[in-house]
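One thing: can you check what follows?
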Amino acid sequence: MAKIKVDAVKAGFDPAGLESAEAILNEGVEQKLYPGGSAWVWRKGVNALVCSAGATDYSGKSKVDENTLFDMASVTKAMSCAPSVLMLAQEGLLDIAIRPVTSFFADRDLSHLEGITLHHLLTHTSGLPAWKDMYSNGQTREQAIDELFAIPLINEVGSTFVYSCMGYIMLSIVLQAVTGERIDTFARRKIFEPMGMESTLYNPKPKAGRKIAATDHCPYRKCELVGEVHDGNAFALEGVSGNAGLFSTAADAARFCERLLVGRESGGSFPLNPPVVRRIFTNAISETVGGQTWGWFTWPNDMVPGRDFASRSAIAHTGFTGTCVVIDPEYDAFAILLTNRVCNNDDGLAFRHLRRRFFNTAFGSIMC
Protein backbone atom coordinates (compact mmCIF):
# COMPACT_ATOMS: atom_id res chain seq x y z
CA MET A 1 0.00 0.00 0.00
CA ALA A 2 1.39 3.40 -1.02
CA LYS A 3 2.48 5.70 1.75
CA ILE A 4 0.16 8.68 2.19
CA LYS A 5 1.83 11.98 1.30
CA VAL A 6 1.69 14.55 4.10
CA ASP A 7 2.93 18.15 3.97
CA ALA A 8 1.83 20.39 6.86
CA VAL A 9 3.66 23.45 5.51
CA LYS A 10 2.16 23.18 2.03
CA ALA A 11 -1.28 22.86 3.66
CA GLY A 12 -0.64 26.08 5.55
CA PHE A 13 -0.16 24.66 9.05
CA ASP A 14 2.45 25.19 11.71
CA PRO A 15 4.11 21.73 11.76
CA ALA A 16 4.83 22.01 15.47
CA GLY A 17 1.14 22.49 16.13
CA LEU A 18 0.22 19.33 14.26
CA GLU A 19 2.96 17.46 16.09
CA SER A 20 1.14 18.52 19.26
CA ALA A 21 -2.12 17.19 17.83
CA GLU A 22 -0.48 13.81 17.19
CA ALA A 23 0.97 13.88 20.70
CA ILE A 24 -2.54 14.42 22.09
CA LEU A 25 -3.78 11.34 20.18
CA ASN A 26 -0.92 9.32 21.69
CA GLU A 27 -1.60 10.79 25.13
CA GLY A 28 -5.07 9.27 25.08
CA VAL A 29 -3.61 5.82 24.50
CA GLU A 30 -0.99 6.29 27.20
CA GLN A 31 -3.65 7.37 29.69
CA LYS A 32 -5.85 4.44 28.63
CA LEU A 33 -8.69 6.72 27.60
CA TYR A 34 -9.00 4.45 24.57
CA PRO A 35 -7.09 1.45 23.17
CA GLY A 36 -6.39 3.18 19.88
CA GLY A 37 -7.24 5.95 17.49
CA SER A 38 -6.68 7.52 14.08
CA ALA A 39 -6.48 11.17 13.10
CA TRP A 40 -6.51 12.95 9.75
CA VAL A 41 -6.10 16.68 9.06
CA TRP A 42 -6.46 18.10 5.53
CA ARG A 43 -6.49 21.56 3.98
CA LYS A 44 -6.73 22.94 0.45
CA GLY A 45 -6.14 19.60 -1.24
CA VAL A 46 -3.19 18.60 0.92
CA ASN A 47 -2.98 16.04 3.72
CA ALA A 48 -1.41 17.84 6.68
CA LEU A 49 -1.49 15.06 9.29
CA VAL A 50 -2.28 11.35 9.02
CA CYS A 51 -1.47 9.32 12.11
CA SER A 52 -2.65 6.46 14.29
CA ALA A 53 -1.86 5.23 17.78
CA GLY A 54 -2.51 2.19 19.92
CA ALA A 55 -4.43 -0.97 19.10
CA THR A 56 -7.93 -2.17 18.28
CA ASP A 57 -8.46 -3.31 21.88
CA TYR A 58 -6.61 -3.31 25.19
CA SER A 59 -4.88 -6.62 24.38
CA GLY A 60 -2.61 -4.58 22.10
CA LYS A 61 -2.36 -7.37 19.53
CA SER A 62 -3.61 -5.52 16.44
CA LYS A 63 -2.32 -2.02 15.76
CA VAL A 64 -4.66 0.70 14.52
CA ASP A 65 -4.03 2.38 11.17
CA GLU A 66 -5.94 4.69 8.85
CA ASN A 67 -7.82 1.69 7.41
CA THR A 68 -9.12 0.40 10.75
CA LEU A 69 -12.90 0.35 11.00
CA PHE A 70 -14.47 2.30 13.86
CA ASP A 71 -18.06 2.31 15.07
CA MET A 72 -18.99 5.85 14.02
CA ALA A 73 -21.98 6.00 16.41
CA SER A 74 -23.87 9.30 15.92
CA VAL A 75 -21.58 10.42 13.10
CA THR A 76 -23.92 8.07 11.22
CA LYS A 77 -26.46 10.90 11.31
CA ALA A 78 -24.17 13.23 9.38
CA MET A 79 -22.42 10.81 7.02
CA SER A 80 -25.27 8.43 6.19
CA CYS A 81 -28.75 9.47 7.25
CA ALA A 82 -28.88 13.17 6.38
CA PRO A 83 -27.18 12.79 2.96
CA SER A 84 -29.51 9.91 2.11
CA VAL A 85 -32.62 11.94 2.95
CA LEU A 86 -31.26 14.89 0.97
CA MET A 87 -30.65 12.57 -1.97
CA LEU A 88 -34.34 11.66 -1.93
CA ALA A 89 -35.20 15.36 -1.97
CA GLN A 90 -32.72 16.03 -4.80
CA GLU A 91 -34.34 13.25 -6.81
CA GLY A 92 -37.82 14.71 -6.23
CA LEU A 93 -39.10 11.86 -4.08
CA LEU A 94 -39.93 14.07 -1.09
CA ASP A 95 -39.63 17.60 0.23
CA ILE A 96 -37.89 18.63 3.43
CA ALA A 97 -39.87 21.50 4.87
CA ILE A 98 -43.58 21.03 4.10
CA ARG A 99 -44.81 17.43 3.95
CA PRO A 100 -45.65 16.10 7.43
CA VAL A 101 -43.93 12.95 8.59
CA THR A 102 -47.32 11.45 9.46
CA SER A 103 -48.22 11.36 5.74
CA PHE A 104 -45.63 8.67 5.11
CA PHE A 105 -47.41 6.27 7.47
CA ALA A 106 -51.11 6.42 6.66
CA ASP A 107 -51.69 3.05 8.35
CA ARG A 108 -50.64 4.42 11.76
CA ASP A 109 -52.45 6.77 14.12
CA LEU A 110 -49.78 9.43 14.62
CA SER A 111 -51.94 12.38 15.60
CA HIS A 112 -49.50 13.21 18.42
CA LEU A 113 -46.79 13.84 15.77
CA GLU A 114 -48.82 16.26 13.67
CA GLY A 115 -46.83 19.20 12.31
CA ILE A 116 -43.46 17.45 12.29
CA THR A 117 -41.62 17.66 8.95
CA LEU A 118 -38.33 16.20 7.81
CA HIS A 119 -36.79 19.61 8.48
CA HIS A 120 -37.71 19.28 12.16
CA LEU A 121 -36.22 15.79 12.35
CA LEU A 122 -33.02 16.82 10.56
CA THR A 123 -32.53 19.83 12.85
CA HIS A 124 -33.51 18.21 16.18
CA THR A 125 -36.47 20.59 16.58
CA SER A 126 -39.26 18.01 16.27
CA GLY A 127 -40.17 18.03 19.95
CA LEU A 128 -39.11 14.41 20.34
CA PRO A 129 -37.02 13.54 23.40
CA ALA A 130 -33.29 12.93 23.15
CA TRP A 131 -33.50 9.19 23.77
CA LYS A 132 -35.68 6.28 24.81
CA ASP A 133 -34.65 2.71 25.56
CA MET A 134 -36.20 0.52 22.85
CA TYR A 135 -33.92 -2.49 23.20
CA SER A 136 -33.34 -3.78 26.73
CA ASN A 137 -36.45 -5.96 26.71
CA GLY A 138 -35.20 -7.82 23.67
CA GLN A 139 -37.35 -5.92 21.19
CA THR A 140 -37.35 -6.93 17.54
CA ARG A 141 -36.84 -4.32 14.81
CA GLU A 142 -40.60 -4.13 14.25
CA GLN A 143 -41.33 -3.75 17.97
CA ALA A 144 -38.72 -1.01 18.31
CA ILE A 145 -40.29 0.88 15.40
CA ASP A 146 -43.73 0.58 17.00
CA GLU A 147 -42.32 2.00 20.23
CA LEU A 148 -40.63 4.82 18.31
CA PHE A 149 -43.91 6.00 16.81
CA ALA A 150 -45.61 5.92 20.22
CA ILE A 151 -43.16 8.34 21.87
CA PRO A 152 -44.90 11.53 23.04
CA LEU A 153 -43.41 14.94 22.31
CA ILE A 154 -41.71 16.88 25.10
CA ASN A 155 -41.70 20.27 23.34
CA GLU A 156 -43.80 22.18 20.86
CA VAL A 157 -42.74 21.36 17.31
CA GLY A 158 -40.06 23.78 16.08
CA SER A 159 -39.65 25.61 19.36
CA THR A 160 -36.57 23.99 20.91
CA PHE A 161 -33.33 22.26 19.92
CA VAL A 162 -33.10 18.89 21.67
CA TYR A 163 -30.44 16.62 20.17
CA SER A 164 -32.49 13.50 19.45
CA CYS A 165 -31.47 10.05 18.31
CA MET A 166 -35.17 9.28 18.01
CA GLY A 167 -35.63 11.82 15.24
CA TYR A 168 -32.88 10.32 13.13
CA ILE A 169 -34.18 6.80 13.65
CA MET A 170 -37.51 8.10 12.36
CA LEU A 171 -35.79 9.63 9.32
CA SER A 172 -34.36 6.25 8.37
CA ILE A 173 -37.82 4.69 8.66
CA VAL A 174 -39.22 7.42 6.39
CA LEU A 175 -36.47 6.60 3.88
CA GLN A 176 -37.46 2.94 3.96
CA ALA A 177 -41.13 3.84 3.50
CA VAL A 178 -40.31 5.95 0.43
CA THR A 179 -37.79 3.63 -1.24
CA GLY A 180 -38.66 0.17 0.08
CA GLU A 181 -34.98 -0.08 0.95
CA ARG A 182 -33.23 0.10 4.31
CA ILE A 183 -30.68 2.82 4.86
CA ASP A 184 -27.67 0.48 4.83
CA THR A 185 -28.15 -0.55 1.20
CA PHE A 186 -29.44 2.85 0.08
CA ALA A 187 -26.52 4.82 1.54
CA ARG A 188 -24.00 2.32 0.18
CA ARG A 189 -25.49 2.51 -3.32
CA LYS A 190 -26.17 6.24 -3.47
CA ILE A 191 -23.56 7.85 -1.21
CA PHE A 192 -20.57 5.64 -0.44
CA GLU A 193 -19.99 3.54 -3.57
CA PRO A 194 -19.99 6.58 -5.93
CA MET A 195 -17.11 8.00 -3.87
CA GLY A 196 -15.17 4.75 -3.64
CA MET A 197 -15.76 4.46 0.13
CA GLU A 198 -15.46 0.68 0.12
CA SER A 199 -14.79 0.42 3.86
CA THR A 200 -17.87 2.37 4.96
CA LEU A 201 -20.79 0.11 5.80
CA TYR A 202 -23.22 -1.23 8.37
CA ASN A 203 -22.73 -4.56 10.15
CA PRO A 204 -19.17 -5.26 8.97
CA LYS A 205 -18.24 -8.91 9.09
CA PRO A 206 -14.79 -9.91 10.36
CA LYS A 207 -12.65 -11.13 7.48
CA ALA A 208 -9.01 -11.53 6.56
CA GLY A 209 -7.26 -8.19 6.26
CA ARG A 210 -10.08 -6.21 7.90
CA LYS A 211 -9.24 -4.51 11.18
CA ILE A 212 -12.18 -3.49 13.37
CA ALA A 213 -11.73 -1.48 16.55
CA ALA A 214 -13.55 -3.13 19.44
CA THR A 215 -16.11 -1.43 21.66
CA ASP A 216 -17.44 -2.83 24.89
CA HIS A 217 -19.02 -2.08 28.25
CA CYS A 218 -22.47 -2.29 26.68
CA PRO A 219 -24.72 -2.64 29.77
CA TYR A 220 -27.14 -4.90 27.88
CA ARG A 221 -24.86 -7.30 25.99
CA LYS A 222 -21.98 -7.30 28.53
CA CYS A 223 -19.29 -8.35 26.10
CA GLU A 224 -16.65 -6.94 23.78
CA LEU A 225 -18.25 -5.87 20.52
CA VAL A 226 -16.34 -6.18 17.27
CA GLY A 227 -18.24 -5.10 14.17
CA GLU A 228 -21.50 -4.98 16.12
CA VAL A 229 -23.02 -1.56 16.72
CA HIS A 230 -22.59 -0.26 20.27
CA ASP A 231 -25.81 1.77 20.36
CA GLY A 232 -28.59 -0.30 21.92
CA ASN A 233 -31.46 1.05 19.84
CA ALA A 234 -29.52 0.61 16.61
CA PHE A 235 -28.74 -2.94 17.76
CA ALA A 236 -32.48 -3.64 18.18
CA LEU A 237 -32.94 -2.29 14.66
CA GLU A 238 -30.62 -5.07 13.42
CA GLY A 239 -27.67 -2.69 13.27
CA VAL A 240 -29.34 -0.58 10.58
CA SER A 241 -30.55 2.85 11.68
CA GLY A 242 -30.30 6.55 11.00
CA ASN A 243 -28.93 7.42 14.42
CA ALA A 244 -26.02 4.93 14.58
CA GLY A 245 -24.73 1.74 13.01
CA LEU A 246 -22.29 3.04 10.41
CA PHE A 247 -18.67 1.83 10.51
CA SER A 248 -15.92 3.67 8.67
CA THR A 249 -12.19 4.36 8.59
CA ALA A 250 -10.16 7.55 8.84
CA ALA A 251 -9.23 7.14 5.16
CA ASP A 252 -12.86 6.84 4.03
CA ALA A 253 -14.04 9.62 6.33
CA ALA A 254 -11.34 11.85 4.83
CA ARG A 255 -12.55 11.03 1.34
CA PHE A 256 -16.10 11.95 2.40
CA CYS A 257 -15.01 15.27 3.93
CA GLU A 258 -12.83 16.27 0.99
CA ARG A 259 -15.55 15.51 -1.54
CA LEU A 260 -18.13 17.34 0.58
CA LEU A 261 -15.98 20.49 0.69
CA VAL A 262 -15.30 20.37 -3.05
CA GLY A 263 -18.97 19.57 -3.71
CA ARG A 264 -20.08 23.04 -2.58
CA GLU A 265 -18.80 24.45 -5.87
CA SER A 266 -18.32 21.50 -8.21
CA GLY A 267 -20.90 18.92 -9.20
CA GLY A 268 -19.75 15.31 -9.35
CA SER A 269 -17.25 15.42 -6.52
CA PHE A 270 -19.97 14.52 -4.03
CA PRO A 271 -23.13 12.54 -4.89
CA LEU A 272 -25.30 15.53 -3.94
CA ASN A 273 -25.25 18.56 -6.22
CA PRO A 274 -23.86 21.97 -5.11
CA PRO A 275 -27.17 23.62 -4.10
CA VAL A 276 -27.93 20.65 -1.87
CA VAL A 277 -24.40 20.42 -0.45
CA ARG A 278 -24.51 24.10 0.47
CA ARG A 279 -27.51 23.44 2.68
CA ILE A 280 -25.37 20.98 4.65
CA PHE A 281 -23.13 23.95 5.50
CA THR A 282 -25.98 26.36 6.34
CA ASN A 283 -27.59 26.75 9.75
CA ALA A 284 -31.21 25.73 9.21
CA ILE A 285 -32.68 27.06 12.46
CA SER A 286 -32.80 30.41 14.22
CA GLU A 287 -29.65 31.16 16.21
CA THR A 288 -31.95 31.88 19.16
CA VAL A 289 -32.88 28.18 19.03
CA GLY A 290 -29.41 26.82 18.20
CA GLY A 291 -26.99 25.87 15.47
CA GLN A 292 -27.89 22.88 13.30
CA THR A 293 -27.70 22.35 9.56
CA TRP A 294 -29.49 19.53 7.77
CA GLY A 295 -27.32 16.91 9.41
CA TRP A 296 -24.51 18.70 11.27
CA PHE A 297 -23.84 20.88 14.32
CA THR A 298 -22.74 24.43 13.56
CA TRP A 299 -22.28 27.76 15.34
CA PRO A 300 -23.63 28.66 17.91
CA ASN A 301 -24.00 25.00 18.91
CA ASP A 302 -21.42 24.23 21.61
CA MET A 303 -21.41 20.57 20.49
CA VAL A 304 -18.83 21.60 17.84
CA PRO A 305 -15.59 20.32 19.46
CA GLY A 306 -13.26 22.68 17.58
CA ARG A 307 -15.37 25.74 18.20
CA ASP A 308 -12.62 27.62 20.04
CA PHE A 309 -10.58 28.13 16.83
CA ALA A 310 -12.62 26.76 13.94
CA SER A 311 -14.62 29.45 12.16
CA ARG A 312 -18.31 30.12 12.63
CA SER A 313 -18.85 28.39 9.29
CA ALA A 314 -17.56 25.05 10.59
CA ILE A 315 -19.82 22.02 10.80
CA ALA A 316 -19.17 19.02 13.00
CA HIS A 317 -20.53 15.81 14.43
CA THR A 318 -19.49 13.65 17.34
CA GLY A 319 -20.15 10.00 18.16
CA PHE A 320 -20.62 8.45 21.61
CA THR A 321 -18.00 5.78 20.88
CA GLY A 322 -15.26 8.42 20.57
CA THR A 323 -15.53 9.57 16.96
CA CYS A 324 -15.66 13.10 15.60
CA VAL A 325 -15.45 15.04 12.34
CA VAL A 326 -15.06 18.83 11.99
CA ILE A 327 -15.23 20.48 8.55
CA ASP A 328 -14.49 24.18 8.10
CA PRO A 329 -15.31 25.68 4.70
CA GLU A 330 -13.86 29.09 5.63
CA TYR A 331 -10.41 27.51 6.03
CA ASP A 332 -11.08 24.80 3.40
CA ALA A 333 -10.02 22.27 6.03
CA PHE A 334 -11.21 19.29 7.99
CA ALA A 335 -10.00 17.26 10.95
CA ILE A 336 -11.03 13.75 11.94
CA LEU A 337 -10.50 11.92 15.23
CA LEU A 338 -11.63 8.30 15.53
CA THR A 339 -11.22 6.37 18.79
CA ASN A 340 -12.95 3.58 20.68
CA ARG A 341 -13.13 5.42 23.99
CA VAL A 342 -16.12 3.33 25.24
CA CYS A 343 -13.66 0.52 25.90
CA ASN A 344 -12.79 2.64 28.94
CA ASN A 345 -15.72 2.33 31.33
CA ASP A 346 -15.71 5.89 32.70
CA ASP A 347 -17.91 8.96 32.31
CA GLY A 348 -16.04 10.15 29.21
CA LEU A 349 -15.21 13.57 30.67
CA ALA A 350 -11.44 13.19 30.31
CA PHE A 351 -11.90 12.08 26.71
CA ARG A 352 -14.11 15.06 25.90
CA HIS A 353 -11.42 17.42 27.22
CA LEU A 354 -8.78 15.63 25.14
CA ARG A 355 -11.01 15.78 22.06
CA ARG A 356 -11.43 19.53 22.35
CA ARG A 357 -7.67 19.97 22.82
CA PHE A 358 -7.03 17.91 19.69
CA PHE A 359 -9.34 19.98 17.50
CA ASN A 360 -8.18 23.26 19.05
CA THR A 361 -4.59 22.33 18.23
CA ALA A 362 -5.49 21.25 14.70
CA PHE A 363 -7.41 24.41 13.76
CA GLY A 364 -5.24 26.65 15.91
CA SER A 365 -2.21 25.58 13.84
CA ILE A 366 -3.47 27.16 10.62
CA MET A 367 -0.92 29.78 9.56
CA CYS A 368 -2.17 31.18 6.27
Remarks:
- The longest helix spans residues 15-30.
- The longest strand covers residues 46-54.
